[in-house]
Amino acid sequence: MKLTHYILSILATGLLFSCAPKIDPIFDDTSANRIEEEIETVQEILLSSPNGWLMEYYPSSTQSYGGFNVLLNFQPGYRVTVASETAGADKTAVSTYTLKQSAGCVLSFDTYNEILHFFSDPSNNQGMGDGYGLEGDFEFTILQADEQIIRLKGKKSGSYMTMTPMSTGLKWNDYLKDIKQKDKEFSEYYRLLYQDEEQSLETRLTGHTLCIYRKKGEETITEYQPFIITLTGCKFYQPVQLGNNVIEGLILNPDLGEDGTFIPSNDATGTFIPTYPSVNEMLFSRNWFFTYSGFSPYGQALWDISREALEANNDDITYCYLGNEINILGTYYAFQFICAQGHGYLGFDYELIGEDKISLKFSEEGSTIGKSYYTDFKFNALITPFGNDIQRTFTLTSDDKKSPNWIKFTDIDHPENYFTAYRAVQYYPMAN
User: Fold this and answer.
1) 63: left (phi over 0), alpha (psi -120 to 50) or beta
2) What percent of the chain has pLDDT over 90?
3) H or E element: which one contains 157?
C-alpha cells in the first residue's frame, strides 16, 4: 500500500510539472546587449548633426536664472566642442563626454569644460548666482532621442531641456552675436503692462525671467516665468496661462506703440506694453555695482581704511553691489560682496521719497560673512558713505531715464559725499 501511494505521488508530481506553462523571455537579448545598443544608437544620433546641437539649458531646480543657449558639437572619440551666450561669441572649449546607463541612458560631461561647467561651478566670473553659482548640471538623463530632437532632464536640478540640430549654414559666432543683441533688446525693458480683453496685469522682466503680479484680495502674488532668448524674442520654459490665453513666448514689435510692444510668439492674444519706473525704483530692478574711482574723495578715504585691512590679510573684493538678497531668512536690500571667505551681505533699511530720492541706513542685519568683514576688515568704513551710523538721504540722477547705465547718489545733507553705481559688473573695485 505504501509503495502504491509513493508511485502515485511521483506520477502526480510529474503531471504538475508537465502542466506548468512555458515562460517565454520578455526580451530577445540580454540586458547588457540592450544597454550597449541603446548607447550606440544615442551616440549615432549625437554625431548625426554636422553643425552640432542647440541646447536650451536651464540651471537650478527652480529655473530661477532662466534659460541659456548652449551649442554643442559631438565628435568621434567622445569629444565635444561647446559654446554659449555666457561666453564670448567666438569662444569655444573642448572636452570629453560619456554615455552610460544609470536608470536610463545618461549623457555626462566627465572632464572640465570652462563654458559648460560655468553653470555648475559654485561661483563664476560674471556675478551670477551671488556666490553660490547657478546650480546647473553636467549630467543629463536622456528621455527621448532622434535626429530631430533630444529631450533631457538634469540629474541634479531635475530641469527639463532640449537639444535641436543647428542649421548647417549657420555660423556659431553669428548665432551667438544675434542672441546677445536680442538679449540686450530685452534688457532695455523693465516693467511691462499686460493687457487682453479680460484683464490687465503688471509684469517685469528681470534677467531671463518674467515676473507676473496677480492680486488676490489685498495680497499681491508674484509668479516667476523663466524663459530663454531666441533669435526672434523669448521662449518660456513652460507655456504661461494668462486668463484664456496660453502664451509660449514673446516677440518685440518695435513699430507698435511709442516704445515698442511685446506680443505672444504663438496665436494667443494680449500685449505687453512697456512702462518705465522712476529712477529710485530702478535701484531694485537689478544689482548696481561700485568702483573705488566712482566715489568722491570723502568716500575714497573711507574705502582706503577697508583696503588696508584687506591687504593685511591678503584678501580683496572681487565685486560688490547694492541689490536684493533673498534667502530662507527673508528678503533684504543689501550691500553685497564677494571676497576670499565667499558671498557676504549687510542689510539696509530704505525709504523711497518721490521719484528721485532714497534714504538708506545700515539695519545691523547681515550674513555671518558680512558681519565678519564689517568688524575684522573695516567694512564699517566701506559702507559709511551709504549710511552706516546715520541715515542718509540721496538725490538720484542717471544717464538714461528708461535704461540707465549708471545712477549717481548725492548726499543731500553732506554734498561732499557722492558716488556712482554701475549697471555692468565692476571687477576688483579697489583697483578700478
Assistant:
1) left
2) 70
3) none
In 169-212, where does DSSP find H-type helix? 172-187
Checking if the pLDDT of 123 tops 80, the result is no
Q: What is the mean pLDDT of the chain?
A: 89
pTM for the structure as a whole: 0.69
Element (H, E) at 292: none
Determine the Cα angle at 222 with ends 221 and 227, to 5°.
Answer: 155
Task: Quote the cell numbers at residue 18.
Answer: 508537465
Report in angstroms the alpha-carbon separations of 142 from 106, 156, 276.
6, 14, 43
pLDDT band at 126 (very low <50, low <70, confident <90, very high): low
pLDDT tens for each residue of 181-205: 999 888 878 789 999 888 899 998 8
3-state DSSP assignment of residue 414: coil
**pLDDT 10s digits, 294-306:** 999 999 999 999 9
- From CA 348, how far away is CA 278, in angstroms rounded? 20
The pLDDT, as a whole number, for residue 98 is: 96
**Phi, psi torsion values for 138, nearest 5 degrees:** -130, 5
Give the 3-state secondary structure of residue 50.
coil
The HSE-up count of residue 384 (CA atoms within 13 Å, CB side) is 17
Would you state the CATH architecture of domain 31-178? Beta Barrel (2.40)
Taking alpha carbons only, the member of 19, 18, 17, 37 closest to residue 27 is 37
Distance CA 405, CA 299 (A): 21
* Vertex 285: Cα angle to 284 and 291 (nearest 5): 75
Question: Which CATH number describes the domain made up of 281-431?
Answer: 2.40.128
| CATH code of domain 188-275 | 2.40.128
